[in-house]
Amino acid sequence: MRSTPLIVVAVVGCAAALLAAQGSQASGDMAARVRALEDREAIRTLWAEYGRTLDARDFTAFSQLFARDAEFVGGGPPAKGPAAIGAFLEKAIGTNYPDSKFKNYHLYFNESIEVKGDRATGVSKGGFVMASADNTKADFLLLATYRDELIKEDGKWKFLRRETTGDIPVPRARRCGWAGPRGQV
Prior knowledge:
This protein is an alpha+beta fold. Helices cover about 40% and strands about 35% of the residues.
């Protein structure tokens, strides 16, 4: 009969250890889930900064959104490295929409993001809207698909590879010298 209290203590001890282990695992899972949500939000912010810096024609800030070994594919031969990517977009926008500064907006939607540690992939849609010549309405100039490979570099999410594919160019865009279905930013 003396063994009964010993068995009870052993069972209670095992149960407590099991609960502690489950609690530790659950808090680890929760931390990983929160980290993944934070990473996704940081990537959405990166996408918003891409549009904001292009709309403001701040190509210095724009180029800083790209990793050291980044590649941009769309509208010509691939551009490699932040400085080359910034210069490529500055030339493309300056040529195609020279008087559009502060009269246009890059919009992003329908995104999907998959994060795996310090790497991620994403697919999103983007639209480019610009004020009409008489500034009385907004013209939707194009719709594009963005396919991204992203990397966390120096603690910040950056584009490692961004590929754009035009989905709906409109006639006005072509009249402005826009390169067509694969020539968008």
